[in-house]
Amino acid sequence: MMKVFLMPFFVCFAFLSNAQDSIPNPQDAQGYQQLLFLLTKAASETENSLLKEHFETVMYFAQDTTHGFKPGAEDYKWASESLSYFDSIGLNWETYLNEPRPLMLSFISPSDGLRSYYWLVLPKNYDSTKKDYPLYFELHGSGGGSNNNPRKMIFHPLQPDLKGVATGGSRKEGFWVFPWGRGDKGYRDQAEKDVLEALADFDSRFKTDPTRQYLYGFSMGGMGTLKMYPMTKERWSAIASYSGALRDADLEKAKEYVSVPVWIAWGSEERWADGNRQIRDLFIEAGVKDFEWTEVEGVGHKYLGEYQEKMLDWLNEHEKK
């Protein structure tokens, strides 16, 4: 298992004095320091390797500047609020077993040497000896650039009130993996490699049912799903794209999907509606063997929970032969 090497605390304090743009209020700055001390102590005391890495990953990215972002006032606020979560339930293994709270696992990218991470929600009633859980690999949508700062996605689900865990993670039907993907970079170039490397890192740690492997995403993640499927096509039992669109779609590209079950949905009022209609028509023309699509009338570009539920129910109907 990849180990995270912590930045020494004198470096952390240097970051405190050189934070970008706005200066954190004293209470948040104190909470930030307390969080780092708490997680350092917890990481040194736990014998659970996943918990240890989770704590160390949060600490690393709380301080990280290798991705071009120094901690700012909002980051200190998120960290200070995360302190309440870790003080109450976030240090307990049972929290991650029983609730849809993600563990943060990190790896060093073989392609550029920088550290990246992904969220991992464990299956309900997780048993480490069981090797046949399904995998739900979800690509996140764009945060308008806000996700490029790695602290945004690190801290978002680690608040006293659960936030940001999508339907696939909330259902805990198998392993749910949600890669950072270098933020809002459209799953291109290094961000594309990042997702493939996150998948490889997960595979190096856990064994899953090869007949139940699901790739999907919303918005930018829906586009990323359609873009990335051809690179890993032998793996997936079914794929789904909600409000995503394949760039430069044509019939030859559509033929890449003929052997995999595909589910797509979009809102009739969103600006990507025409792109999704084009994909629908191309997939039908290409002869995608198991294809389901829905255009949600009167809806714009929105994450609709009921359609995420329908998507997951549909994915679960498919097992690779």
Pick out its properties.
eight-stranded mixed β-sheet, alpha/beta
Cα shape = globular
Distance between the termini: 31 Å
Query: Which strand order spans the largest sheet, edge to edge or round the barrel?
Result: 1-2-4-3-5-6-7-8
Average pLDDT:
92
Class from helix and strand fractions? alpha/beta
The biggest beta sheet reads: 8 strands, mixed
Tell me the helix content.
Answer: 40-55%
Radius of gyration: 20 Å
- The amount of beta strand, in percent, is 15-25%
Beta strands, count:
8
Number of helical regions: 12
**Low-confidence segments, ≥5 residues, pLDDT <50?**
1-20
Which sequence of SSEs, written as H and E, runs from N to C? HHHHHEEEHHEHEHEHEHEH
